[in-house]
């Protein structure tokens, strides 16, 4: 109860309440639990409760004419939802469902109305939140009908934009709906805005050189994404004014902030990416070699909404099918811009991104699969307190192949999924040591021991989400394509099992 009161105290909507009022309010909430993918309410449902997210997170969706879910936004721990419908007494406008196993607390419409009518400050705070969310929904609906602006700005004065701009300009020539804007004069940018010859679905990529120009553009154009461009070998810093503009002005308009890291041509594998990611909560990051065209092409595909992500499911030895799929895509010249994997799919995706030379991919996978086969032999049996077999050999071969490589340092985006026993849900790993996360995503309960990551217990991700298309979709957006490879049966097991309470071996 004390922890719940502390959570309510941190909610901005209730920050005006006295201690006694907080305790009284906490006693009125009712706890509910949602499973992964379970719908909390649907568009058109009666607005009879407000909800506070205690753990996990949920997403709101518009359902289009084809009955497809289009994500609008996410609601995470400590955030309130459903309040607008309660006060307006109108049906729900959006569909809301749990992305992972989620616990919420709900307060009835009558109780919330009484609270608001007795506390005008709560109504004022709520009005701001409702307006912001309404703008987000309207922006989503209007996205296809208005000009989209993506801004690239150096993270600090030490980052030169000139060479990057020339390479990007050269690689952008084949994108008819993408216009690279080089001017930094606000008057000329206004001329572009008023130029009727540009189609409404044009994507404008604007290269600016300073935070002062960025400040002038806020409110003038619809900024969809701000990319901070940084040289990974230069000063690890972000100009304070840029951070201030993002925190105080840009983020309020639901603009994505992403990172582009430049590397010299002699760099084999990026390093120290985590130091940049710790400086700001970037939605995404890209690695680009100064003179490697394929890296610029990949960035442009993401900007243009034409990138292709690969999601590889688990399936044990059947995972070799994924290898054939990757080879077939390469032969068809279909570029893979990002990969997500679970269990065997995580191993294969990681091997490909670590070294995309096909023969080397096969060699590494053969070493890994042979090792996993050996550890399930009789001589590797352990005292079955946690598992039947010892995973040390598998951990060793993964460490030998991937060494100290971090997920965030791979040239292309990657994540793998594990079943996190400590939170009773899934965990998607976008950063951290690659070898240990792969081991965790392949640790079958009872067969191999769980892996400990940041003090939490992780098992094979296929237990919870064997094909994380939903996570990839939320990560790359609604326009980019996803190719999914599922190895397990999609139909339910209809067999009826009947085992005795005690099974005799002899």
Quick structural gist:
With 506 residues, this protein is α/β, with parallel strands linked by helices.
Please specify the SSE layout and strand pairing.
Blueprint: H1 2-10, H2 19-28, E1 30-34, E2 39-41, E3 49-55, E4 58-63, E5 69-75, E6 80-81, H3 83-88, E7 95-98, E8 102-108, H4 109-117, H5 120-142, E9 148-154, H6 162-171, E10 178-181, H7 186-194, E11 203-207, H8 211-217, E12 223-231, H9 240-250, E13 256-263, H10 273-277, E14 284-289, H11 293-304, E15 308-312, H12 320-331, E16 338-342, H13 344-354, H14 358-374, H15 392-402, E17 414-420, E18 425-429, H16 434-441, E19 451-453, E20 456-460, H17 469-476, E21 481-485
Parallel strand pairs: 9-11, 9-12, 10-11, 12-13, 13-14, 15-16, 15-21, 16-17
Antiparallel strand pairs: 1-8, 2-7, 3-6, 3-8, 4-5, 4-7, 17-18, 17-20, 19-20
């Amino acid at each position: 109860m004390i922890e719940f009161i502390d959570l309510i105290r941190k909610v901005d909507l209730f920050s005006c309440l006295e201690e006694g009022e907080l305790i009284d309010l906490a006693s009125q909430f009712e706890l509910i639990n949602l499973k992964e993918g379970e719908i909390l309410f649907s568009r058109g449902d009666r607005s009879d409760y407000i909800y506070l997210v205690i753990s996990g997170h949920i997403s709101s969706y518009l359902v289009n004419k084809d009955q497809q879910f289009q994500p609008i936004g996410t609601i995470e721990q400590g955030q309130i939802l459903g309040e607008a419908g309660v006060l307006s007494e109108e049906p729900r406008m959006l569909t809301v469902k749990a992305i992972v196993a989620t616990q919420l607390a709900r307060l009835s419409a009558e109780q919330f109305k009484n609270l608001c009518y007795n506390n005008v400050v709560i109504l004022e705070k709520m009005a701001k939140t409702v307006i912001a969310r309404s703008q987000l929904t309207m922006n989503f609906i209007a996205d296809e009908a208005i000009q989209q602006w993506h801004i690239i700005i150096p993270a600090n004065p030490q980052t030169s934009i000139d060479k990057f701009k020339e390479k990007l300009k050269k690689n952008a020539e084949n994108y008819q709906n993408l216009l690279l804007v080089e001017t930094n004069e606000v008057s000329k940018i206004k001329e572009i805005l008023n130029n009727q010859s540009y189609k409404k679905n044009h994507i404008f990529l604007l290269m600016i050189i300073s935070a002062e120009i960025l400040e002038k553009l806020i409110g003038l154009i619809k900024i969809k994404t701000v990319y901070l461009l940084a040289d990974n070998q230069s000063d690890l810093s972000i100009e304070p004014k840029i951070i201030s503009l993002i925190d105080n002005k840009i983020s309020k308009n639901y603009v994505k902030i992403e990172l582009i890291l430049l590397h010299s041509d002699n760099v084999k594998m990026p390093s120290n990416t985590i130091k940049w990611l710790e400086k700001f909560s970037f939605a995404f990051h890209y690695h680009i070699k100064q003179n490697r065209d394929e890296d610029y092409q990949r960035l442009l595909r993401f900007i243009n909404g034409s990138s292709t992500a690969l999601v590889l499911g688990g399936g044990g030895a059947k995972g070799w099918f994924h290898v054939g799929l990757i080879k077939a895509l390469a032969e068809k010249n279909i570029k893979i811009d990002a990969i997500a994997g679970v269990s065997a799919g995580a191993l294969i995706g990681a091997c490909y991104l670590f070294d995309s030379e096909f023969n080397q991919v096969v060699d590494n996978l053969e070493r890994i699969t042979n090792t996993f086969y050996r550890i399930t032999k009789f001589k590797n049996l352990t005292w079955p307190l946690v598992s039947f077999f010892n995973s040390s050999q598998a951990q060793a071969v993964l460490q030998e192949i991937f060494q100290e490589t971090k997920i965030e340092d791979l040239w292309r985006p990657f994540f793998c999924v594990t079943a996190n026993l400590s939170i009773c849900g899934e965990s998607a790993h976008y950063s951290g040591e690659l070898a240990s996360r792969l081991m965790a995503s392949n640790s079958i309960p009872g067969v191999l021991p769980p892996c400990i990551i940041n003090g939490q217990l992780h098992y094979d991700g296929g237990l919870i989400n064997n094909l994380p298309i939903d996570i990839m979709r939320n990560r790359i957006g609604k326009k980019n394509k996803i190719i999914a490879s599922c190895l397990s049966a999609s139909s339910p097991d209809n067999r009826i099992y009947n085992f005795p309470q005690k099974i005799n071996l002899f």
